[in-house]
Write a structure and sequence with these properties.
Elements (H helix, E strand, L loop, with lengths): L2 H27 L2 H27 L14 H29 L7 H29 L2 H30 L4 H28 L6 H14 L3 E12 L2 E10 L5 H18 L3 E8 L9 E2 L2
Parallel strand pairs: 2-3
Antiparallel strand pairs: 1-2, 1-4
Helix pairs in contact: 1-2, 1-4, 2-3, 2-5, 2-6, 3-5, 3-6, 4-5, 5-6, 7-8
């Protein structure tokens, strides 16, 4: 089992622990704001399980039906997470509405706040781990999970402050009002997750600055060629596909063209780990005079 799968399983364990802590905080207080925080933690568990599935699928080798591999499964996980987050937000809005209609005093609020703070601290620490490891291993599933947990921590802190104000001021209407604000924040988070994941499913390319660096590497290492044009990239989870046309002299031999391509592949794969490079060799009369000029 590789590190990303271990991290995904760790997310399931942490999410279950935090879920138990937050539901206990709600039970001892009766606060609908703390309930909203606990409902969001249910989504954390579901999305952690989805990440485990997505990482398992994404690591399967390419086959006859999927010659480009299965790495895009991680984007499906992130989209599912966004959908579930939106569902949680709607459930929280319902609870907030019911609490507005019939406000209830809070029981043992300070105990509930202490318990809730413990769950938030655990979430925050694990979110930092997921973000760091997700960037290191270029895993959309881990990054999405980490971002969601970070948003959950911010939400939880707001909830704890709000419940504290309810206790200090005695204004019971603050409790459902905080829950409604939590729901709006959760909706925004879900939209962001789905938008970014959909871009991945639509073959979004590398950022402009990274693409410019690739073109610079091609120009610096394509000695013996004339021009490179139509440089394209697309990202599929941790994999990056790079392709372009390389113009060589009309009298160049197959071996000479092949050597240039081999050199470029080594350089590009060293610069972009987990990349697949495809180079289409063309004769001099295919030169477009608008690509990367080598000579």
């Amino acid at each position: 089992m590789i590190i990303t799968q271990k991290l995904a399983l760790g997310s399931v364990a942490v999410s279950l622990a935090v879920l138990g802590v937050k539901f206990y905080a709600w039970q001892v207080t009766g606060s609908v704001a703390l309930l909203s925080d606990a409902l969001e933690s249910i989504i954390n568990v579901a999305t952690a399980l989805a990440a485990v599935w997505a990482l398992h699928v994404s690591l399967q080798p390419a086959d006859a039906r999927h010659p480009y591999g299965h790495t895009k499964a991680e984007y499906l996980s992130a989209v599912l997470e966004g959908v579930l987050v939106v569902g949680a937000a709607l459930a929280i809005l319902r609870e907030a509405y019911l609490a507005f209609a019939s406000p209830q005093p809070l029981d043992t609020p300070w105990l509930g706040l202490a318990v809730g703070a413990t769950g938030s601290a655990l979430n925050g620490a694990w979110a930092a781990v997921l973000r760091r490891q997700g960037r290191k291993h270029r895993s959309p599933a881990l990054l999405a999970d980490g971002r969601h947990l970070e948003a959950d921590v911010v939400t939880s802190v707001g909830v704890l402050v709000g419940v504290g104000l309810v206790v200090l001021t005695g204004k019971l209407a603050l409790d459902p009002a905080i829950a409604a604000l939590v729901a709006l924040n959760v909706l925004w988070t879900g939209w962001g997750l789905m938008k970014e994941s959909v871009n991945g499913l639509l073959d979004e390319g590398l950022p402009d600055d990274e693409l410019a660096q690739l073109k610079g590497l091609i120009a610096a290492n394509a000695e013996g060629a004339i021009e490179a044009h139509d440089v394209k990239t697309r990202c599929a989870g941790k994999l990056t596909f790079i392709e372009f046309h390389l113009v060589v002299a009309g009298d160049a031999t197959v071996t000479q063209a092949h050597d240039i391509c081999d050199r470029l592949e080594r350089v590009l794969k060293a610069a972009v780990p987990d990349s697949a490079v495809t180079i289409h060799v063309e004769p001099e009369d295919k030169r477009e005079h608008q690509g990367i000029v080598v000579l």
